[in-house]
Design brief:
With 183 residues, the protein is mainly β. Helices cover 10% and strands 40% of the residues. It has one domain: Jelly Rolls, CATH 2.60.120.10. Its EC number is 5.1.3.13.
């Protein structure tokens, strides 16, 4: 497994496993504490694992947490997703930069998203299972959602949106979220 720094988002990493494939299919390590530790992250800091299943065109996000934020490892364990990260850490050299990834079951790559970054994705296949490893317990009172179609972000979502949560449909603009963070 190798770790590659994501140039568009300071402190973000892409962990790419080395699958062993044969006539049965493949096997690969999707988490390696030593590799995580080698880039300065504490592997024992992750306290919660979750999974979501989405149909083609479903959009989830853009989500982040207020307060101390939430760091996470994200992997598409089945299917393919278009994954988006937006750096909203005012002290970051990549503040307001965006990065886009295609995560899939073929590569089993895992994306590390630092606390303070917004995250969202869209399912590209009929079924897409996305796994999350989060560094602190979820507190719904800290949930923040930014409009997926905010013109300032101009995210090139690859498919028409087929479904999203009520929370995501009612999301506020990036400008409003940043204004709330400052007050």
């Amino acid at each position: 497994m190798k770790a590659t720094e994501v140039p568009e988002i300071a402190g973000a990493y892409l962990f790419e496993p080395t699958p062993y494939a044969d006539e049965r299919g493949f096997f690969c390590r999707t988490f390696d504490a030593d590799v995580v530790r080698s880039v300065g992250l504490d592997p024992s800091a992750f306290v919660q694992d979750s999974v979501s299943r989405s149909a083609r065109g479903v959009l989830r996000g853009l989500h982040l947490r207020s307060g101390a934020g939430e760091a996470k490892l994200v992997r598409c364990s089945h299917g393919r997703i278009f994954d988006v990260v937006v750096d909203l850490r005012t002290d970051s050299p990549t503040y307001r930069d965006r990065a886009f990834f295609e995560l899939s079951d073929e590569t089993q790559a895992t994306l590390y998203i630092p606390a303070g970054c917004a995250h969202g994705f869209q399912a590209l296949t009929e079924t897409a299972d996305t796994s999350y490893r989060i560094d602190r317990p979820h507190d719904p009172a800290e949930d923040v959602t930014i409009a997926f179609d905010d013109p300032e972000l101009a995210i090139p979502w690859p498919l028409p949106v087929t479904s999203m949560s009520q929370r995501d449909r009612e999301a506020t603009s990036l400008a409003e979220v940043l204004q709330q963070k400052e007050s």
